[in-house]
Every structure is written in structure tokens, then in C-alpha cells.
């Protein structure tokens, strides 16, 4: 029987060798990322260029924002639906699902709400989805800091895209120009403290889940899902709870713990399509941290900072040359525009 220990561990790669190394060192980093994405869909990058002090400061701003009164946070409300993904979402507004678009089924899923709140911002120059900020007087300094942090993450993202282009042998100028508008999303996430017994059955592996003997859970943090776009950068606090799925055993998960000084990077659906599933868009979820007893423990507040990258709106995502052939590896997906795919997935997240 497959167990969580059988799921390949997420490798740690020194990205500094790509940022500052010679041609051979850059090629070796690209190869290591390629191997990680083939095996798990995830990789930890250290020496990634975003200074620890800057990341720590972003967590401080996140805690300040979510500590504001609800009426203050609601001065920057996320618009109804998922087409304009900016601003503040209160607990229970968003419900993550995996490729579920039927209205009745989505209604059933929302009976157990996601117990988290979020604040979304993007590229300040993106006129397609303008940012929605709280008044400057509510939390002076938040906006300029997040705009600066966005730039740090944008720079890192384009560097990773260059590494991915090298791994896939995409001819110069590679994948970065397909993201020239940097239609990226910076998300602050807060999972309020909750007793372990209240969480839905995503605290343990579904293969041996005993939630029925504990009683009906009332909430979840984030259900198992894949990300929509090209790739995701994730900065975690020390609480833990993130788990990644086994590539070949649905319902089986292993922890993806926070590692000091690293950013966790994972493949999104569009990148999996581009690579014709050479790279895995692995499902992942947030549940009970490993150190917490599900019968007795209080799960502490958790904060995380994901940064979602997607291609420019009209970019057609079709299997790249070298990732398919007519004989043994045909194209697995129909072409789709980046924006069309992301909006289809976003529409399922929010109550209208």
C-alpha cells in the first residue's frame, strides 16, 4: 500500500547559481528544476534574490491588515464573482474546488466554507484588473510596500521563466515575453485559529480518514486543488499545514513544510498544458499542521503569501515544440487562451 513516505520529497535547489552562475551552472539549475517538476510539480528555491528581511516585512504588513476591523477591511471589497480578482475577501466567500463548474455541485461544496480571508493585488499598471486598496488612512504604507513586494516577486518570476525556457529548450527569447504584461497576482492569506475538530477531512490522508468517528466537521482551510496559471511562488510562515498530493495515488498527501530562506514554487495548469504534462500541476491543500492533535489541539493562525503568475491575456497555450510528437506523445490538450482558462476556473471560486 502506498503511504505518504512513498511520495517523492520536494527538492531544494540553489537558484543563486542560476542568477549569478555561468552557462554550465545555469543549465544545471534548469535541469534540477526540470527533474523536480517532473517528479512532484514543486521545488524549493533558496538564494532566490528576495531578501529575508523583505519577506518578513510582508508578513508583518499582512498581520497588520488582517488585524483591522472587518468594516475597515471591507472598504476594499473583492467585487462579486471572479472576473475582477482584487481586494478583500472575508472568510467563507471563496470556496476552492478542483475542476467543478456545475452550479448545484458548487453549492454543495460551499456548505463547508473555506475558513480563510484574503487580500489580492496585482500589477499597478494592469488596467484590465485595477487594484482595490483600502483608504491610505486605514493602514498608511500598505500600498507602497505591496507594490514594491510585487516588483520583487515579478523579477524573480521572470528569472524562473528563463530557467524553465532553458529546461524546455524554448528558443530565445523564451517564455518571459509571453508574460510581458506581468498580469500576476499577489495574495495575502490568513487562516484564523480554529479547533482541529472543526476542520473537514483534509487533515489526514483520505485513505485512512477517521473523520466520521469524530463528528461532522464544519469548515475547511483549502481543499485539494491545482493552481490555474503558469506557476506559483509561495512564502509560508512557520505554522505549516500545506500538503501536496501523490502524483499517481489520488487522495494521498504528504506535508510540504516551511523551510527557512526558501520560496516554494509549483507548476500551474497552464504550464502543465504548455509542457504537455511533462511537468505536473500537482494538487495541494491546507489542513492540519503535523504537530497538532486533531482531537485535542487548537490550530493556530496561519499566514501565507502566494504570488500567481499567468501569461498575457491573449497568449495561446498549446503544447510547445519538443514536448510532443505525432508518434508516441501526441498533444493532450486543445489550445486555449491564458485568460479564457483562468477566468473559467475563477468563476467557480466565488459566490455571485
From TrEMBL:
<comment type="similarity">
    <text>Belongs to the iron/ascorbate-dependent oxidoreductase family.</text>
</comment>
<dbReference type="Pfam" id="PF14226">
    <property type="entry name" value="DIOX_N"/>
</dbReference>
<keyword id="KW-0560">Oxidoreductase</keyword>
<dbReference type="GO" id="GO:0044283">
    <property type="term" value="P:small molecule biosynthetic process"/>
</dbReference>
<keyword id="KW-0223">Dioxygenase</keyword>
<dbReference type="InterPro" id="IPR044861">
    <property type="entry name" value="IPNS-like_FE2OG_OXY"/>
</dbReference>
<dbReference type="InterPro" id="IPR026992">
    <property type="entry name" value="DIOX_N"/>
</dbReference>
<keyword id="KW-0479">Metal-binding</keyword>
<dbReference type="InterPro" id="IPR050231">
    <property type="entry name" value="Iron_ascorbate_oxido_reductase"/>
</dbReference>
<dbReference type="InterPro" id="IPR027443">
    <property type="entry name" value="IPNS-like_sf"/>
</dbReference>
<feature type="domain" description="Fe2OG dioxygenase">
    <location>
        <begin position="182"/>
        <end position="311"/>
    </location>
</feature>
<keyword id="KW-0408">Iron</keyword>
<protein>
    <submittedName>
        <fullName>Thymine dioxygenase</fullName>
    </submittedName>
</protein>
<dbReference type="Pfam" id="PF03171">
    <property type="entry name" value="2OG-FeII_Oxy"/>
</dbReference>
<dbReference type="GO" id="GO:0046872">
    <property type="term" value="F:metal ion binding"/>
</dbReference>
<dbReference type="InterPro" id="IPR005123">
    <property type="entry name" value="Oxoglu/Fe-dep_dioxygenase_dom"/>
</dbReference>
<dbReference type="GO" id="GO:0051213">
    <property type="term" value="F:dioxygenase activity"/>
</dbReference>
